[in-house]
Structures are given as C-alpha cells and as structure tokens.
C-alpha cells in the first residue's frame, strides 16, 4: 500500500478551506501567514511557492517577503520584530537554510512563539517534550497523520527513526513515543544500522542521502516512511532516502517521494497557521 500524501493533503486542505470560509463572518478576517525568503536558492524558492499555492487553496492570506542574500542579521531580526508586533499577522515562517552570516538559532528564537507556525521556537520544542500545548512541527505532524490515515497501529510497535535533527528526527521520535511506540533513534554513528532497521515495524528515514535504505534493511511487512528529499545523482529527478522500487516489495505500507511526506508538511503548515489564528481570537 502506497500512502499518497498528495491525496490526503488535498482532502485535508479542502476541509480547511470550508472552515476558513466561515472566518470572515465569525472573526472579521482570514488567517495571515507571512513567509520570509532570503536569497534565491532554487529549492527554497520552490518550497515558498508551494506554501503560497497551498494558502490560496485553503483561503489563507499569504504574504511572501523576499530579501536579498546579503541582508544583515540585524535587518532580518528587525523585520521579524515588526511582524511579531503586527496584530494582523498570525504566522511567521523564515525559510531555511539562511546564508551563513545569519544565525538560524537567533532568527528562530526571535519569532514570537505564538506565531511560530513551524514549531521550531525553543519554547515550542520544550513544550512538545513536556507534553504541553504547543505548535507541533509540520513534517512530524504530517507523518503521524499519514500513519493514522493508513490505519497503521502505532501503539506497542517498534519504531526506528534514522536521523536526529531538531526539525525531523527528534520530534518524529517524540510523537511516536507519545503514541506508545517503542522508539529507537539511529544516526550516523549507529553501528550495524541494517540490524537495527530490520527490527522496525515502523521505519522513518530522515537522512538526506538518495536511496540509502535498501531492501535488505527492511523487515517483511514493515511500514516505511521516507522523509528524504534528494536529487537522483543519475537522473537529476527528485528521490527519497529509500530505494522505493525495492522497498515496495517488502513493506506493507510505504510513502513515495515526491508525493508523500512533502505535501503533508505543507498541509500541516496550513493547519498550524489556522491554529495560531484561532488562538489569537
Ligand atoms: P539533517 O539535519 O542533515 O540530519 C540528517 C540526519 O541523518 C542526522 O541525524 C545524521 O546523523 C543522519 N545521518 C546522516 N548520514 C547517516 C548515515 N550514513 N547513517 C545513519 N544516519 C545518518 O537533515 P534533516 O533536516 O533532518 O532532513 C533529512 C532529510 O529530510 C533531507 O533530505 C531533507 O531534505 C528532508 N526533509 C524533508 C521534509 C519534507 O517535508 N518532506 C522536511 C524536512 C526535511 P548525525 O546526527 O549523527 O549527524
């Protein structure tokens, strides 16, 4: 079974569009998401366009602010302060990565926690780990949604997450733990990775290396979630961290790249923007 993030996100966005259509009458306006793009990295430009397109579908107001790559850190922090103070801005997202002269940590911390639609602010991260109300980061949230929509039982299962970044690996592991899976987090220094991944009922791969996970690393009937977004070195096309064609033969459920986790990430960004908006009402 292939879980289509494209189909699921289309359905969820249609439901959100109905919800948002009622907001002007109820609250006098629709949610407003501001996306800040620094520089012109092609992947970032494409992600930002995807966010604007999804906002249009859902009926959310989207403003994309483009700044040159040589903007100073102080100027960017000043812009964030202005957006924080604007009562008609509900969500602020600064597209990562940023140029090397700008501290990503400072930028993430500068965004008002209540407008942090990415869920990257240290206070949101702390709240997630303490099971307090928070904005759940989009990609991990989307992954749990996909598992549930596919009817995958998480409770009591052995989950292995490869990758321990703050953005994907760690929060995915935490959400799986909250769903009562027994979770192992693997990383670049894990010894004999295949023996670890073969233990997984649910395998989440977030490494960033094309077709790194091969069929021999997957147990029969496992659920495989491929978060990776890479360029195939041979064809130049988008591909995941998992060798999809081979893994499909062994997995009971698998996500494709493109069309899997990616669309769900944007869908959950829309959901987080609506949540931040409602929280402010
Ligand atoms: P990251 O910060 O570079 O983290 C990569 C992780 O993979 C690290 O924890 C690293 O281990 C681990 N790793 C690297 N090589 C490994 C190896 N040989 N064996 C085992 N583990 C290894 O990347 P990220 O931000 O988490 O993103 C991961 C991938 O997901 C990327 O392809 C990114 O583009 C994609 N992504 C997709 C979405 C989406 O919406 N679909 C969203 C975010 C990210 P160490 O910690 O030991 O270095």
The pLDDT mean sits at 97
The counted number of beta strands is 10
How many helical stretches? 11
Radius of gyration, whole Å: 19 Å
Please write the CATH class name of the largest domain: Alpha Beta
Main-sheet strand order equals: 5-4-6-7-10
User: In CATH terms, what is the architecture of the largest domain?
Assistant: 3-Layer(aba) Sandwich
Terminal CA distance: 41 Å
What is the count of structural domains? 2
Main sheet characteristics: 5 strands, parallel
Structural class: alpha/beta
Beta-strand portion reads: 5-15%
3D shape: globular
Any idea of the CATH topology of the largest domain?
Answer: Rossmann fold
Topology as H/E string? HHEHEHEHHHEHEHEEEEHEH
Which ions and ligands are bound to the chains? NADP nicotinamide-adenine-dinucleotide phosphate
The CATH superfamily of the largest domain is identified as NAD(P)-binding Rossmann-like Domain
Poorly predicted tracts of residues:
none
Percentage of residues in helical conformation:
40-55%
């Amino acid at each position: 079974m292939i879980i289509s993030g494209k189909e699921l996100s289309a359905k969820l966005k249609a439901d959100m569009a109905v919800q948002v259509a009622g907001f002007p009458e109820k609250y006098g306006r629709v949610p407003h998401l501001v996306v800040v793009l620094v520089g012109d990295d092609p992947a970032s430009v494409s992600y930002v366009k995807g966010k604007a397109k999804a906002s249009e579908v859902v009926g959310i107001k989207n403003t994309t602010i483009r700044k040159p790559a040589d903007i100073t850190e102080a100027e960017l922090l000043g812009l964030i302060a202005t957006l924080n103070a604007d009562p008609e801005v509900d969500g602020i997202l600064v597209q990562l990565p940023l140029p090397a002269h700008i501290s990503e940590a400072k930028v993430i911390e500068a965004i008002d926690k209540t407008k942090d639609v990415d869920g990257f602010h240290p206070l949101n991260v702390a709240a997630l780990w303490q099971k307090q109300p928070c904005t759940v980061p989009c990609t991990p949230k989307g992954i749990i949604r996909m598992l549930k929509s596919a009817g995958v039982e998480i409770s009591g299962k052995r989950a292995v997450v490869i990758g321990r970044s703050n953005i994907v690996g760690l929060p995915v592991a935490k959400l799986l733990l909250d769903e009562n899976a027994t979770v192992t987090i693997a990383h670049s220094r894990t010894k004999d990775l295949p023996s670890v991944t073969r233990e997984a009922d649910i395998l989440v791969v977030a490494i960033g290396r094309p077709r790194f996970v091969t069929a021999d690393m997957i147990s029969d009937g496992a659920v495989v979630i491929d978060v990776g977004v890479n360029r195939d070195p041979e064809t130049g096309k988008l591909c995941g961290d998992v060798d999809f064609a081979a893994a499909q033969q062994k997995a009971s459920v698998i996500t494709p790249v493109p069309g899997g986790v990616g669309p769900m990430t944007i869908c959950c960004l829309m959901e987080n923007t609506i949540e931040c908006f409602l929280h402010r009402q």
